[in-house]
Amino acid sequence: MTKPTSMTEIQAVNVLLTTIGEQPVNTLTGNQVTDVTIAQDVLNEVNREVQAQGWHFNTEQQVSLVRDGSNHVNIPADTARIDVREYDVVVRSGKLFNLSDRTYEFSSTLKADIVYYQDFNDLPDAAKKYITTRAARIYADRMINSETINKMTTRDEQKALIDLKEFEGDTGDYNMMDNYSVARVMNRGNHRRVI
Predict the structure, then answer these.
(1) Is the pLDDT score of 174 beyond 80?
(2) C-alpha closest to that of 132 among 66, 22, 40
(3) Percent of the chain beyond pLDDT 70?
(4) Do the Cβ atoms of 89 and 98 come closer than 8 Å?
(5) Pair 82, 96: CB distance under 8 Å
(6) Residue 193 has pLDDT above 50, yes or no
(7) pLDDT tens digits, residue range 13-56?
(8) DSSP per residue over 90-149, as a string?
(9) How crowded is residue 149: how many other Cβ atoms within 10 Å of its Cβ?
(10) d(CA 139, CA 42)
(11) At residue 192, does pLDDT exceed 90?
(12) pTM above 0.85?
């Protein structure tokens, strides 16, 4: 028996193909049949969707953002989400925009929490499994719309999501005291209303 290795993108695409009874492929390069191209597109779509939620494996806290010569902050193309705690900002035209001052210009260095898109092959196995099973369900629904396949893949997707959330909890080093919602409830008794 061969030692298992981490899932590759081609293996994930082959999971999608075999879900609807298609033959697996040996390559994703060159001219492909429509089913392979659609499978790869669905996998990429779900990959972006799942990663954009922000997980421990693709989030960096307090990243220093450098201003350009115009005092604008350009956002890297692989940014899924960004949050600057000191300002109310959004991304417009690939740059940070300060909603309060209605300007692209910033006078100081900013620190941001950034969710980055990662290459599929660099993701942890739990994330690859969830992305692949979710993509397989969506792909099968779009291609053949079988109730039986949908039930089977929905169960697989739910199990994969549970595994991903367990992985997230194990690796994220989360503390309930670091969560605003929990801290608010814990401190509720300390702020008595005066009548």
Answers:
(1) no
(2) 40
(3) 90
(4) yes
(5) yes
(6) no
(7) 999 999 999 999 988 887 778 899 999 999 999 999 999 999 99
(8) EEETTEEEETTTTBS--SS-EEEEEEEP--GGGS-HHHHHHHHHHHHHHHHHHHT--HHH
(9) 19
(10) 6
(11) no
(12) no
Domain ranges of the chain: 9-54+119-172, 56-116
The CA R_g of the chain, rounded to the nearest whole Å, is 22
Question: In one letter, which amino acid is 20?
Answer: I
Checking DSSP bridges between strand 110-116 and strand 79-84, what pairing results, if any?
A: antiparallel
> In this structure, what token pair is assigned to residue 100?
């309060």
Residue 22, CB-side half-sphere exposure with 13 Å CA sphere: 22
Closest-CA residue to 10 (of 118, 120, 164): 120
The Cα 22–Cα 14 span in angstroms is 9
With vertex at residue 77, the alpha carbon angle to CA 96 and CA 128, rounded to the nearest 5 degrees, is 125
Q: Determine which helix (DSSP H) or strand (DSSP E) holds 17, and give its type and residue range.
A: helix 9-19
